[in-house]
Fold each of these.
Amino acid sequence: MTTTTPARKIHLLGSASYRDEAEAMLAAPGDAVLVERGLLRSLILCCPDGCGETLVVNLDPRAGKAWRLYQRRGAISVYPSVWRDGGCESHFIVWKDRILWCGVFNEGNEEPDYDPAIEPLVLDALPADRFVDPATIAQQLDLIVWDAGKALRRLVAHGEAREGVGSFKGTFERLP
Ligand SMILES: [Zn+2]
């Protein structure tokens, strides 16, 4: 762990054909470059905690476990969270260009703009007889998973949905 201030935003600098080329473009923590050859291959990041390492987020399901990238209104989101197992152990969410830290640094987290108009749509899509996860709802409504998750948590707070417990934690159903 370093003593530098962690990045709070992603700066997408552009795209490159190969990882080395992408890595050479990175200058500051939070800088990011997409690697694209025909298809999206990966997102290369200068680790936002300032440790100086390069993180490779695989976006190609043919190459193994893949993250989902959303590009909406010029901002990127990545699902699920990015978690570095070794080294600095950075763990964070990328949501509309914001970096939300999990655990360490999370006191400074600032969520991106959010439109509560999606909540009635999320409620409509939510079954009342079984628990579903935010990714399922997001896919159905073409939402960023983090937005769907926030809508679901707000619906719970408003008494319109409930979250499961135990092995159903993180999944939701509509209340009658
Ligand atoms: Zn790091």
Amino acid sequence: MNDVQILDRPQAVQGSGMLPSIYEVRTRRRELADCVTLEMAPLEGPALSFAPGQFTMLYVHGVGEIAVSISGNPANGEALVQTVRAVGAVSKAVCGLKEGQRLGVRGPLGVPWPVEQAFGKHLVVVAGGLGLAPTRPIIYWALANRERLKSIAVVYGTRTPDQILYAPQLLGWSNTEGLQVGITVDRAGEDWAGRVGVVTELIAPMLHDPEETVAMLCGPEIMMRFAADALADAGVAQDDVYLSLERNMKCGIGWCGHCQMGPHLLCRDGPVFAYPAVRDLMTVWEL
Ligand SMILES: Cc1cc2nc3c(=O)[nH]c(=O)nc-3n(C[C@H](O)[C@H](O)[C@H](O)COP(=O)(O)OP(=O)(O)OC[C@H]3O[C@@H](n4cnc5c(N)ncnc54)[C@H](O)[C@@H]3O)c2cc1C
Ligand code: FES
């Protein structure tokens, strides 16, 4: 019995994701003034496979480790694609990595978006700002499964036109059959011919049959709360609304308690939740 426990321990640590794999940056693309997308590949073996909504812990040697959502195509196992905004020491170090430089990657971690819940229904993705990065894998997945969905809509809002993430790709998607894209910005100059206003105003016009709709939300929490209310007002069942939450994370695997939100550890029980599971917690200040 003891032998089994001694042997099990290192396997449990490795299997549960505490040991980083070494990845190399293959390409680095600037998306916005403070935001880059890295395509990374492991030094050995294939890139990790993941489900939409999962994240990794990215470790820059001598600086630290942060949680970052996977924003690539789940069907493409060749590279790990992640979009990072430089807000503090670690994210700035990740954004500053050059092609050929290495970093540690743990994952994939976390509960994915329950994308299969959308089979036979209308799927609506509502994203705000950088929230398009964690939701982009849903869109890749939906396009690959479009014959099993009644419709696909992407509702995207951000502050200004120069803050639109993946702008060329959004433009391409807006011309893709079977995919409806709505974009709005909070404020814009005269050179912006698109819509100005909050993202919640765009939701109802893009719904086909609210009672047959599954919605997936990611963005600032205040935006997600208003979006969830707009969906409810339009008749979408709250059980069919899912969202992805962010909290400061250290271990990423349910050990340290840093990401606790009420009864949930976001890294272990989330980051994706059905809205009713977190609705009341989201209104508690600084929880
Ligand atoms: C599940 C999950 C998925 C995530 N996915 C992504 C992703 O795809 N891309 C990405 O860029 N980030 C993502 N984040 C956020 C990322 O982990 C943080 O930005 C990062 O931990 C900041 O660490 P830092 O050391 O660079 O900055 P810190 O020194 O920790 O923070 C610097 C400053 O930035 C503020 N800050 C911290 N986090 C954020 C934030 N998320 N937004 C705005 N301000 C912040 C802090 O309050 C502080 O004022 C995700 C977080 C979680 C939990
Ligand atoms: S980050 Fe340690 S428990 Fe979630």
